[in-house]
Design a protein that fits this description.
Blueprint lengths: L1 E11 L2 E10 L2 E6 L7 E4 L4 E4 L1 E6 L12 H10 L2 E6 L10 H14 L3 E6 L13 H7 L3 E2 L9 H13 L4 E3 L4 H4 L4 E2 L2 H6 L3 E2 L1 H18 L3 E3 L5 H12 L4 E5 L1 H5 L21 H13 L4 E2 L8 H4 L16 H10 L6 H16 L14 E11 L18 E11 L2 E5 L4
Parallel strand pairs: 1-4, 1-5, 6-7, 7-8, 8-9, 10-13, 11-12, 13-14, 14-15
Antiparallel strand pairs: 1-2, 2-3, 5-16, 16-17, 17-18
The structure holds (4S)-2,6-dioxohexahydropyrimidine-4-carboxylic acid and zinc ion.
Length: 424
């Protein structure tokens, strides 16, 4: 099977160049100025051809919470968002703390056959923070990392053992950093706006304490660690300093942390409720600086779809989370590249190559011989975000009405077109 992409601007870590690109079976076989082949052809004139986006932090909800999302709807949303590969968090029901659940997820993802789905296994049994799950067996079944995402592992000894044990299987811990006791029921960032809104605040320190602990464990053990969804200026600073000392720490953030501030919570729109919470402009600026100087390695969505009934309630009762996988490219392009903060190449690295490197995944780069996971976008196309048009079951976005640039036209996985906005 061959597929020819003609006249697109190809974005690689080395630059941008107008070229044709030929795919044979599941690999990129040639990149050259003018390729003529009698085969299925995609006209990419005026469009950019990027390495397929890799979102290493999503919640697909299946098994157990199919009212919020399932593997099929989540994968449809992913390819619509240009995402060729996701890592799905284990806070399902049952949680993914054993090989049976891991195998089930892989099996369903194969049936759905849209994007690649890499399960993340629980660090602890039942995600309860008390004893280690069957990490080795889950690795054999296909997990690519471990995490208790949604919760921190409070017990530092368990966390240390998890890092050591997982490292033996070449797996990283993806750390959701939250000192629950210090959060103490907080639902938004603690500050002026929480006081104004009369909503209980959660201090930065609740996140920073756990970031500092996990860095300390990583440093003392000399084992790599990855920090999830960084939201605080002080967390960025902890990671920056650790990297300077040579600690093997990597980190991610999400579009809501570099676009929004807690000014929006006074609307009481529950779509703004997310954990960790969006914080102040000082944090937002520091996250941008951290992305720019490499302190923050990747942009993920923490795609957290919820049903209407989980969100259409009082702010205090609403579920935490933002449905983000369909808007991440356009938001990141609009707020980071259009504004001149970073180049498209740099953005592409944050959304493809760096996550691939961190988790040793296939893909992440366009070059001859590489796997044919590709996203084609129209950077000039402007549109208005409307959560009601999401294919995800989760319509919960705080970005309704935002005007963005960068529409996904094609998502190609293993050389096959999995999404085409104008039909295949
Ligand atoms: O806002 C969030 N929602 N943060 C998390 O860590 C978990 C996620 C979810 O599962 O809904
Ligand atoms: Zn989390």
């Amino acid at each position: 099977m061959k597929l020819l992409i003609k006249n697109g601007v190809i974005v690689t870590p080395n630059g941008e160049k107008k070229s044709d690109l030929l795919i044979e079976n599941d690999k990129i076989s040639r990149i050259a100025p003018a390729i003529d082949e009698k085969c299925k052809t995609v006209d990419a004139s005026g469009k950019h051809v990027l390495a397929g986006l890799i979102d290493m932090h999503v919640h697909l909800r299946e098994p157990g919470f199919e009212g919020k999302e399932d593997i099929e709807s989540g994968c449809k949303a992913a390819v619509k968002g240009g995402v060729t590969q996701v890592c799905c968090m284990p806070n399902t029901n049952p949680v993914n703390d054993n090989a049976v659940v891991t195998t089930y997820i892989k099996h369903r993802a194969n049936e759905v056959n849209l994007c690649k789905v890499n399960p993340v296994g629980c660090i602890t049994k039942g995600q309860e923070g008390e004893s280690l799950s069957d990490i080795g067996k889950m690795k054999s079944a296909g997990i690519v990392a471990i995490s208790d995402d949604g919760k921190s592992v409070d017990n530092s000894l368990i966390m240390r053992l998890a890092m050591e044990y997982a490292n033996g299987f070449n797996l990283k811990c993806l750390c959701h950093c939250e000192d629950k006791k210090l959060v103490d029921g907080g639902v938004v960032n603690e500050g002026y706006n929480s006081t104004l809104a009369g909503l209980k605040g959660s201090p930065r320190a609740a996140e920073d304490i756990m970031i500092a602990r996990d860095i300390a464990l990583s440093e003392s053990l000399d084992i790599p660690v990855h920090i999830c969804h960084v939201s605080t200026y002080s967390g960025v600073e902890l990671i920056r300093n650790a990297k300077k000392r040579g600690v093997k720490v990597t980190a991610e953030t999400c579009p809501h942390y570099f676009i929004l501030t807690d000014d929006i919570i006074t609307s009481y729109d529950t779509n703004t409720k997310v954990n960790p919470p969006v914080r102040e402009d000082r944090d937002r600026q520091a996250i941008i600086a951290g992305l720019k100087d490499g302190t923050l390695d990747c942009i993920v969505t923490d795609h957290a779809p919820h049903s209407q009934k989980d969100k259409q309630v009082e702010y205090n009762l609403a579920a935490f989370g933002i449905s983000g996988i369909e808007t991440s490219f356009a938001l990141s392009y609009t707020y980071l590249v259009k504004t001149g903060i970073m180049s498209l190449q740099e953005l592409s690295k944050k959304m493809s190559k760096n996550p691939a490197n961190i988790l040793s995944l296939d893909g992440g780069e366009i070059k001859e011989g590489a796997v044919a996971d590709i996203t084609i976008v129209d950077l000039n196309k402007k549109y208005t975000i409307d959560g009601n048009k999401f294919v995800s079951k989760g319509k919960n976005t705080p970005f309704n009405g935002y005007e963005v640039f960068g529409e996904v036209n094609y998502t190609i996985v293993d050389g096959e077109i999995k999404y085409a906005d104008g039909g295949k």
